[in-house]
Amino acid sequence: MTAEWWKLEEGKEREEARKESNRTNRHLLRRKLFLFDQDGTLYLDFKPLPQSREFLAALKERHVQTIFITNNSSRSASVYQERLRDVLDVEASQREIYTSTKATIGWLRSEGMTRAYLVGTPGFMEEMEDAGIEHTAEEPQIIVLAFDTTLTYKKLEEMCYLIQKGVGYVATHPDKVCPTLDGYIPDIGAFIELVRTATGAGPQRILGKPNPDMVRFLLEEFDAKKEDAIIFGDRLYTDIRMGVDSGIATVLMLTGESRIEDIEKYGVAPDLVFKDLGEALELL
Ligand SMILES: [Mg+2]
């Protein structure tokens, strides 16, 4: 049986090869730290995906540590706590929601930075302040651009002046748009292009998925090793890319954006590929 079963033509043979590969790698499901992308992996349009509740309940029974990750730095962890409770009946602590804001705080700390010009929502500003990052336009060490749904022209103006004075900037994540029930809205990637057009400068670093820094800081926070962790996601170029680059185990869920054909296209090979979490539950 080929290890690269996804190169087979769609059909019964490929399906059997996929399932056999999953059985071969099922030992990876015995890891103790499970990271989950949310939209497209656990729920879609605020509705639970098949067997996601049951799978999370089985993990809880086994005392597996679960972490819910998101690139969205416009909302605080409590918004996701509420959503997980409403949609999936899951009680997650603030600590178990890992946002790109937390990854950015991890990076600022690792660089010893405490003074920044922050472009973000009030919730983001509060989280930064709680982490000991002072918001200032007076000689900041860095500019931090978040997904700011309260963005004003004044903030853009200030940010562009600072960049022209030589202050560097980092972005919390790279997503160009954010899906909502009514359609796509501009996310930070669109702001990055706006600032680039105005100043010629881009971010010196982009945290969040797919940057493996996100997993690195998360593992530090939970005092875990990469051999302990496994990530479930529906996007090859973010969730799975980050997992592979971090050296943790990866699970592609076909419940969201990616199709099997995309594995070859993006050149990122997940360890396990499931049609839904019911399949994963069977191998747990
Ligand atoms: Mg997703």
In short, what is this structure?
With 284 residues, the protein is of the alpha/beta class. The site of magnesium ion has 8 residues, from loops.
Describe this structure in words.
The protein is an alpha/beta fold. Helices cover 39% and strands 19% of the residues. The chain has eleven helices and 15 strands. It has a six-stranded parallel sheet, sandwiched between helices. Strands 7-6-8-9-12 form a five-stranded parallel sheet, sandwiched between helices. The protein has a two-stranded antiparallel sheet with strand order 2-3. It binds magnesium ion.
CATH architecture of the largest domain: 3-Layer(aba) Sandwich
Question: What fraction strand?
Answer: 15-25%
Pattern of helices and strands? HEEEHEHEHEHEEHEEEHEHEHEHEH
CATH topology name of the largest domain, in short, is Rossmann fold
Small-molecule binders: magnesium ion
Question: What is the terminal-to-terminal distance?
Answer: 23 Å
Kindly state the mean pLDDT as a whole number?
95
Number of strands: 15
Shape: globular
The CATH C-level name of the largest domain is: Alpha Beta
Largest sheet: 6 strands, parallel
Strand order of the largest sheet: 5-4-1-13-14-15
Estimate percent helicity: 25-40%
Please identify the structural class as seen in this structure. Answer: alpha/beta
CATH superfamily of the largest domain: HAD superfamily/HAD-like
The rounded Rg comes to: 20 Å
